[in-house]
């Protein structure tokens, strides 16, 4: 078998292993998270619709439409998304088979990126970041080709359109350095590249712009509202926050009480080293410091390999685009999530792959090649030993936290919250039915039935027992309910007199006869709470509750006893 064919087959094998690992580590039965529910509720099997805030885009609903339009099965949806994520991984790194000179470099790059725990976790999730990353890495790989055929230009435009459709801010951050390169750098200057970049950005941003004028009154108004929803974007430095989330949670907001765990953040230390070695090996003009490899003498599919003089500038351009994609999250966004930097990790993976291959060449050329190869293999195995358990443990945490929503709904129903209306916590993510009464939300009023209270319920406000009241001890509030998991208890608890001053939630906004919480701006805790007063959490997953009694903005208190402060608290849902 020719080297180029082996390299192509190796990339296919890596993509297959990625799919299998994702299915093994993250169960297909994992309930939909809040963000996933928002996207899936655009379709009738997952009705009623949930609020679609300004930062969200229509890219994910487009991805899940082939399944979500006719089936409410979470398992089927996750199988479909796993297939899509695997295909995206292949299409994203395939252009690099021709550019890196060493065809196996593309497979190694895909393995480095696909082996990260959050990439594996989100492979079956209805979330946009993996597709943004694959659109970016594929577009850059095609952009770097010396000959820009119509098919290549269409690929560049398609990759940027996908990235922009999923996350317009990421698309702009990716497109600006590519556009500047196509205009200013002689080696890549050309109108074909300029038009491809502009066309991809325009095609991906068009739905977002149209919706901005239809729903928000204009682009500026939508950007302003999106900034408010995300905690007021402003100049800051959140590099440390992104280090802390490398072992979870899925969203850290705020991250001030969190700490960096060096072992879990090992990829942040390993990645710069591999990228530096890869750039050095590209600069040397060889495929690794041990001399040109035999596999590099012929490019994939019989074409000449990419000239060695173009590999270093290409990897530097990919690194510049990666930095451009990461910069807004590092200096503007006041919270962190590991998935935010997925495009950055993907764009740095080709250079890191060259670094891995260069280290292999060094080990082979040494006097004791076995020792060097074993040491390198142990280092990579240690990296996987950190990443794979993180994917599985975070999946377990999310399964427990999302299961807590049903228990919260049960407590709310026992307290009479909602009456004939329904709360979003009690809706089964697979069927659109109340998880306790079995009643269909869509019956008797359509999607609005979840958000509107009958006049009789609105006219008679209910009072709710306080967990600190002697007449209604915490255990008596819901004696039949199992205590929630520690993550839920710590996440949702408002401290009483024994745990510090009580903190009131923001007053609900009244719409007609119901009171609707501002769902899009929850106050999150970090994954670990320092000893002392626990942080309050006011972002309970409750869409509709009866109007608050006069002078009382705290409609619900957690009726369960507090958990020890030493136990970690994780987020049950994520944010845009």
Walk me through what this model shows.
It is a single chain. By secondary structure, the chain is an all-alpha fold. It has a domain at 3-396. It has 20 helices and 3 strands. It has helices at 3-25, 34-40, 59-68, 74-93, 96-99, 104-114, 117-121, 129-143, 150-166, 168-184, 191-216, 219-229, 239-244, 266-283, 308-331, 342-365, 369-414, 455-459, 474-477, 486-492; strands at 509-511, 514-516, 544-545. It has a 3-stranded antiparallel sheet, with no helix packed on it. A hairpin with a 2-residue loop joins strand 1 and strand 2. Residues 286-305 and 419-576 have low confidence and may be disordered.
Structural class label: mainly alpha
Q: What is the number of helical segments per DSSP (H or I, 4+ residues)?
A: 20
Unreliable spans are 286-305, 419-576
Q: SSE string, helix = H, strand = E?
A: HHHHHHHHHHHHHHHHHHHHEEE
- Average of pLDDT: 75
How can the largest sheet be summarized? Answer: 3 strands, antiparallel
Calculate Rg over CA atoms.
26 Å
- Give the strand line-up of the largest sheet: 1-2-3
* Percent in strands: under 5%
> How many E strands?
3
């Amino acid at each position: 078998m020719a080297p180029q064919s082996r390299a192509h087959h190796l990339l296919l094998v890596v993509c297959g292993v990625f799919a299998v690992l994702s299915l093994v580590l993250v169960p297909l039965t994992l309930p939909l998270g809040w963000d996933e529910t928002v996207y899936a509720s655009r379709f009738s099997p997952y009705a009623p619709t949930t609020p679609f805030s300004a930062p969200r885009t229509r890219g994910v609903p487009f991805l899940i439409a082939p399944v979500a339009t006719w089936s409410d099965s979470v398992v089927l949806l996750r199988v479909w998304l796993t297939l899509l994520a695997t295909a995206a991984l292949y299409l994203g790194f395939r252009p690099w088979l021709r550019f890196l000179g060493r065809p196996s470099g593309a497979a190694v790059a895909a393995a480095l990126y696909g082996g990260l725990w959050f990439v594996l976790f989100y492979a079956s999730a209805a979330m946009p970041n993996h597709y943004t990353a694959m659109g970016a890495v594929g577009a850059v790989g095609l952009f770097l080709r010396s000959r820009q055929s119509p098919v290549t230009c269409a690929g560049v435009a398609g990759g940027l359109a996908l990235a922009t459709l999923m996350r317009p801010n990421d698309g702009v951050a990716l497109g600006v350095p590519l556009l500047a390169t196509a205009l200013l750098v002689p080696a890549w200057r050309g109108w074909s590249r300029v038009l491809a970049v502009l066309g991809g950005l325009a095609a991906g941003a068009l739905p977002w712009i149209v919706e901005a004028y239809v729903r928000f009154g204009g682009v500026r108004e939508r950007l302003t509202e999106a900034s408010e929803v995300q905690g007021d974007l402003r100049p800051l430095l959140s590099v440390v926050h992104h280090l802390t989330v490398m072992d979870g949670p899925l969203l850290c907001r705020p991250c001030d009480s969190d700490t960096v765990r060096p072992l879990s953040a090992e990829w942040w230390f390993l990645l710069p080293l591999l990228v530096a070695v890869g750039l050095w090996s590209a600069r040397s003009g060889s495929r690794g410091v041990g001399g040109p490899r035999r596999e590099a003498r012929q490019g994939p599919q019989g074409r000449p390999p990419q000239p060695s003089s173009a590999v270093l500038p290409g990897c530097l351009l990919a690194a510049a685009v990666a930095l451009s994609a990461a910069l807004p999250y590092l200096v503007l966004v006041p919270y962190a999530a590991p998935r935010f930097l997925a495009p950055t990790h993907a764009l740095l993976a080709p250079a890191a792959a060259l670094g891995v291959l260069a280290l292999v060449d060094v080990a082979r050329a040494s006097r004791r090649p076995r020792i060097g190869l074993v040491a390198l293999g142990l280092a990579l195995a240690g990296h996987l030993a950190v990443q794979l358990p993180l994917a599985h443990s975070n999946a377990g945490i999310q399964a427990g936290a999302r299961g807590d929503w049903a228990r919260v709904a049960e407590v709310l129903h026992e307290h009479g919250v909602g009456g004939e209306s329904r709360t979003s916590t009690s809706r089964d993510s697979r069927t659109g039915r109340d998880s306790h009464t079995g009643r269909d939300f869509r019956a008797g009023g359509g999607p609005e039935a979840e958000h509107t209270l009958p006049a009789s319920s609105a006219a008679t406000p209910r009072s709710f027992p306080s967990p600190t009241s002697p007449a209604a001890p915490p255990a008596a509030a819901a004696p039949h309910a199992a205590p929630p998991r520690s993550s839920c208890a710590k996440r949702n608890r408002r401290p009483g007199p024994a745990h510090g001053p009580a903190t009131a939630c923001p007053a609900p906004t009244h719409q007609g006869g119901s009171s609707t919480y501002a769902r899009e701006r929850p106050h999150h805790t970090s994954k670990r709470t320092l000893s002392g007063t626990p942080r309050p959490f006011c972002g309970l997953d409750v869409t509709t509750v009866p109007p608050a009694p006069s002078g009382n903005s705290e409609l619900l208190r957690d009726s369960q006893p507090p958990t020890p402060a030493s136990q970690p608290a994780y987020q049950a849902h994520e944010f845009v």
